[in-house]
Specification:
Elements (H helix, E strand, L loop, with lengths): L7 E5 L5 H14 L3 E5 L6 H11 L6 E6 L5 H7 L5 E5 L8 H8 L8 E2 L5 H13 L3 H21 L10 H5 L1
Parallel strand pairs: 1-2, 1-3, 3-4, 4-5
Helix pairs in contact: 1-5, 2-3, 5-6
Length: 174
């Protein structure tokens, strides 16, 4: 099969999860990592899910992010049909606000691992994917180091916004 140079696959259980995919996509775009987005339901289009999972590695995908709500079977079904790392993102908003999806993703049976992030944690799923890809690509690793340094700087700068008595800066220095 043709390698489209998409390192990451983002699969949604339904179109209602597109906003979460956008959050992950924003992270990938900031790192220059190519990704693809698709919609396939573990319950309504299970054959599509299996075909996607089985073809992903041959097409060059290295990590799959599966975003699903309610019973959130999607990440587990994908993991059952590929050896690629699968990161499940439990989507909130349903009657149990994503708790059901979180538990479904986190309670996979032995031998079918799925990593899980917090409810609606698409951004963290993308950052975990970047960490995985940084093991394979030095340029991604260098970009990740810059990102971590900038995130640290942002926290340090935010201390200036404290208007109450604050911890002296030298306490943090060590």
């Amino acid at each position: 099969m043709k390698d489209n140079n998409f390192l990451v696959g983002i699969i949604l259980g339904s179109a209602s999860d597109l906003e979460l995919a956008k959050k992950a996509g924003d992270v990938f775009e900031s790192f220059g990592v190519r990704y693809e987005v698709g919609i396939a339901s573990a319950h309504r289009t299970p054959q599509d899910v299996v075909r996607y999972a089985e073809s992903a590695a041959a097409r060059g995908v290295k990590v799959i992010i599966a975003i699903a709500g309610l019973s959130a079977a999607l990440p587990g079904v994908i993991a059952a049909h590929t050896n690629l790392p699968v990161i499940g993102v439990p989507a909130g908003g349903a009657s149990l606000n994503g708790i059901d999806a979180l538990l479904s993703i986190a309670q996979m049976p032995p031998g079918v691992p799925v990593a899980s992030v917090g409810i609606d944690g698409a951004r963290n799923a993308a950052l975990m994917t970047i960490r995985i890809l940084s093991l394979l690509d030095n340029s991604i690793s260098l970009e990740l180091e810059k990102w971590v340094a900038n995130a640290s700087l942002d926290v340090r700068k935010s201390r200036e916004k404290i208007t109450m008595p604050r911890v002296p800066d030298d306490v943090y220095a060590g």
